Every structure is written in structure tokens, then in C-alpha cells.
């Protein structure tokens, strides 16, 4: 019964957040995070969430990422990888070095510094994409650049975590074989996604070696979606999203990465199964997915994320200076590195490049995983280091919807910033 009480509080907060967002014209994500932080600090929500709420939150982020991938054009995503490599590379290296050397200056311990660098490397892509969606900017080339860069960034961050965490914990460093294994697993995961997208799902194109297999060569996803006269479409595509999430988790990635890739390889043409109209089935299914992802299940993830910020007066006042320095340093390093890379390696305009820089500010899933490893599981991070990272991550997450909102008029061309040397 306690789980239901907590869920009712969260859903009530989601309603309040939606109302405040509408009144202030800001993204509700900001209020979801703030509500979670307030509720945990006044004792209405627990510091340690129950398995039920944690599971509900995990489902929420999976649904959010699937919904975002579902409305993305897969061919556009693939094309954007060629542009995104520089953003992903420089947008990860700069925050890592900033956090690492800041931690060295603060606490003088390279083990702590490694964990701080790792925690502040990966981008909270879900937070950014939901913020862009609330501003109706999620289908822009800049949004695709952010999404692609963040996915590549997360992959690189996971590799770094696997390699550097044993160093930070005092364990034996990974061998060359271990590193090669990690790289191979990443390659295999994307090979599986590519194979499913190119050969398993379609049934009216060249399906590679599958065209030689009787029965299988004649059926694809459209036949599955037509089961029960199309009434089971939502269940079928959610099952695909969950299975792809499990595959991603098996290969060492966050399940949300798999969910996004599942949405990415599902095309609207697969839903044309009858004479109702080419887009009616797809739009109906998309409406249902968007409802659960952005209205009542997905927001639980952001409220749960906000509960990670537990206020302790003594520690809070002791880390104000470190938090201010690290937040400012990461804010500038992330925007400059990602923005300049977007401009000079990917050819985006200055307004798009700065939007990409703002969109790469958030820190969420992987950051808290690294903090848990360093603080809870291995006691590498001190209380001061842990709370500095927590507060920094929170302020950077808050900065995402705020900066996107403030930059939107310049991004869309409604306002001009004379400091920019040209579009």
C-alpha cells in the first residue's frame, strides 16, 4: 500500500508540474525534477525508493526513449552519425578533463578524480530530448545531432567506465583482451540492431540471407502488426522495445539505448495494413505511446531522479564553493566543446551549434550509476565529493530546459544575436 501512496504523490506532482509548466511556458521536466527534490527533503517520498517505484521509473525511461526513437527517421539518424562524431568526442573529453582536474584541485585524490570525471562525462539524452519536444524542436537537425552524439557519447562513456572503474577502485586494470571484448560487444549490439532493421522486420525488400529461408522470407513486421486486425499493434511494438532493451542491457548498455534503437528501426510504412488510410494506424499507435511515455509513466523517471538530491545542511554549506566551480566549469566546457565541434566538424550553423551545446548539459542515468559505484559500493567518493557531484548534476539538469527555452528565439531566427559571426 505504501508504494501506491508514493505513486499517487508522484502523479499528483506530475499534474501540478504540468500546470506550472503551462502557466510559466517552461518545460515540465524542470518541475518534475524540482518536485522530486522537494518531496524527498520534506519526507513525503523516501530517500531509497522501493523496488516498485524504481521499476516503474525504469519502465518510464524505456518508454520515453522508445517514443523519441519511434518518431525519428532512421535514415536521418544514420546520416547524422557522420556529422556527430566530433560532437560526441569533444563533448565527452572536455567534461571529463574539467571534472577530473577540478576534483584533483579540490581533494587531491586521483581515485576520486577518476570517478568524478566518469560521472560527469555522459549526457542525459532523455532529459534533453523531452525538453526539446516540449518546445517542438525535437524533429530539427540539431535535435538529431544531439541524440546521435549523446548515444555515441554514452557508448564511449560505458567503455571508459569499464576500463577506469577498476583503476579507481584499486583493482587490477583491464587487459587489452578485456578492452577488445568491450569494443566487440558494442559492435555486435549495433550489428544486431542493423540486421533486425534491414532484414528481420521488412518483408517487401531484399532480406539478405533470410530470403533463402522458407516461410520466414515471406513474412515481416507488417504481418505481425496485422494480427487481430491491428488491435494488438501497441502491445507488439512495446514488446519489440522491451526485447531490444534487454539485448542492450545484455551487451552492457542502458536499456533505454536499446529502446531508442527499437523505435528508430520501426517505420511508419509498416503500419499500412488496411484501407483506413496510410497514416491512421501509425498515428493512433504513436498517440498511445506518447501518452504513456510523456504523461503518466515517463514523468515518474524524472521525479525519481529529483529524489536523488537529499539536502544535508552541513554538507551543503561545505561544498558550495566546489559545486559552484564545478558547475560553472562543466557548463562552459560542455557548451564550448560540443558547440564548437558542432560548428567546425559537423557544419551546423552557430544557433544550431549553441543549441547542441545546451542540449548536452544534462547528467542523469550513467552519472548516478557511477556515483553509486564510487560512493555506495566502493566508498571511493567522500561525502563532500558525492554531494558536489549530486548538486552539480542537478543544476546542470535544470540548466537544460532553461537554456533551451531561452535560446529558442535565436535558434528559430525570431531574434538575432549580433555576437554570432553568421549562421
Explain briefly what this protein structure is.
With 423 residues, the chain is an all-alpha fold.
Q: Would you write up a description of this structure?
A:
It is a single chain. By secondary structure, this protein is mostly helical. It has a single domain (69-123, 141-297, 316-412), classed as Na+/H+ antiporter like fold, CATH 1.20.1530.20. The chain has helices at residues 2-24, 28-41, 51-70, 74-107, 110-119, 125-134, 141-168, 176-200, 221-225, 233-250, 255-265, 280-296, 298-306, 313-318, 320-344, 350-359, 365-377, 383-412. α3 (51-70) crosses α13 and α10 packs across α11 (255-265).
- Listing every helix as H and every strand as E from the N terminus to the C terminus, the arrangement reads HHHHHHHHHHHHHHHHHH
What structural category do the secondary elements indicate?
mainly alpha
Number of domains: 1
Please give the share of residues in helix.
over 70%
Q: Total number of β-strand segments?
A: 0
Shape label: globular
Cα-atom radius of gyration: 22 Å
SS element count, helices = 18
